[in-house]
Each structure stands twice: as structure tokens, then as C-alpha cells.
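User: Could you check the structure of this?
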Amino acid sequence: MMSRTLSLVGSLSALALIAACSANPPRNEAVVNPPAVTSQGITFGNVSNIEIVQVANRTSGGGAILGAVIGGVLGNQVGGGSGRTAATAVGVVGGAVIGNQVEQRKKRDGEIYRVSVRLDTGSIAQFDFQQINDLRVGDRIKVQDGQLYRI
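Assistant: Sure, the predicted C-alpha cells are below.
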């Protein structure tokens, strides 16, 4: 009976771990519309807009895994026989759900800066950054390898 309980807990924990690993991590920087580049891979333009964009942080899955383990251990302490197996299963699932919710509350939504650049070619390129330091609308910039450099 104990080996069946351990097998159930192990299977559910492995399932939670696989689900947690399948999430894509958020990117810190992305070129939304890639600019037309010169033969040297450099293009020039002016910053036309800077806006703050809300992005939701994703959970790592660690809260769900920890919750599943704790819930499984606590559920295994209840009852006996098939009732104990059911309590363990409910503890694993309930712990995973609660652990994930706790982790989500701990992480706040973040903000990124979306910088729009009117290139000398006439097209608009957008870039997402965590920080823009003292970059301002109207600044003349050079775009090289997805980075903006004030000139």
C-alpha cells in the first residue's frame, strides 16, 4: 500500500515538474519590427515615442512543486488504506494549486519601455527594454545589433 502511495506522489510530482518546465521565460529585449540595416549592420533614426508597457511575470512552477510535495506529505498523514491514498492525491493536487497561487501573488507585474524609432529609411522599428536610462523622444540614435546608441 505504501509503495502505491509513493508511486502516486512521485507521478504527480513529476507531472507538476514537467508542466513547470514547459513555460517559456519572458524576454528582456525584443525587436518587434526589425529595422532595415546598412551593409555594416547599422542604421540611424530618431526616437519617436517611448511608452511604458505592463507585462505579466510568469511563475517558475517552484511554488506548485513545493505545494504538491507538502500537500502530499500532509495528505498521507490522514486516514488509512484507500482513504489515505485518496487524501494523499487530493493533498498533492490541492498543494500544487495553492503553491502556484502563492507564487503568483509574490511576483508583481513588471513594466518595460517600448521605444519606437523612426528610421532614416522612413520605417518605424520598436524595441522593448527593461531600462532606457536617459533616452528621450527626439534623440538621434544609431541601431546596431538590436541596441540603441545615442549619437
